[in-house]
Write a structure and sequence with these properties.
132 residues, alpha+beta, 60s Ribosomal Protein L30, Chain: A, 4-stranded mixed β-sheet, two-stranded antiparallel ribbon, Enamine deaminase RidA, RutC-like_sf, YjgF/YER057c/UK114
Length: 132
C-alpha cells in the first residue's frame, strides 16, 4: 500500500516530519501507547529521558515487527513528554530522530509536553498508527 507524505505550499517548514500523510485504504495497526517498560514490566531509566526514549523506541520496533511492519509503515505518531521545558522536548525529538525508529517520524507527528503519564516515573509515551 503506497504512503504519501506531503508538506503543502504555504505551510511552515518542519524539522523532519510532514504536515500530511496519506495511506491508501487497507489494513491499519493502532499500537497501544508504547511506554518505557522493560520485559519485566518495570520502568527503565528512572529520571533519564534518553534511556526512556531508547526503551520506547525498542518496544515500538518490537510491536511493529509483530504485525510485519517497520517504522517506514508508520503514518502517525504522537509523542508525550512529561515536561514543559522546550529544550527537553527538542532533546526527546532529536533522540527519536537518531533511533532505529527514526523513519516513523517523517510522517504526520505531534510532540506534546504533559503533566503526567500513567506509570510512576514514566517520562515518555509514544502513540503510533501504521499502514500495513
Amino acid at each position: 500500500m503506497p504512503i504519501s507524505r506531503i508538506n503543502p505550499d504555504g505551510l511552515h517548514v518542519t524539522p523532519g516530519y510532514h504536515h500530511v500523510t496519506v495511506a491508501e485504504a487497507g489494513r491499519t495497526a493502532y499500537l497501544a501507547g508504547q511506554c518505557p517498560l522493560g520485559s519485566d514490566g518495570m520502568i527503565v531509566g528512572l529520571g533519564d529521558f534518553d534511556a526512556q526514549v531508547d526503551q520506547v523506541a525498542a518496544n515500538t520496533m518490537a510491536a511493529l515487527a509483530a504485525v510485519g511492519a517497520g517504522p517506514e509503515r508508520v503514518v502517525r505518531t504522537v509523542i508525550y513528554v512529561v515536561s514543559s521545558d522546550q529544550p527537553v522536548l527538542s532533546r526527546v525529538w532529536g533522540r527519536f530522530q537518531a533511533s532505529p525508529l527514526a523513519p516513523a517520524f517523517t510522517t504526520a507527528s505531534t510532540l506534546l509536553g504533559v503533566a503526567q503519564l500513567g506509570f510512576t516515573g514514566q517520562l515518555i509515551e509514544l502513540d503510533v498508527t501504521a499502514a500495513l
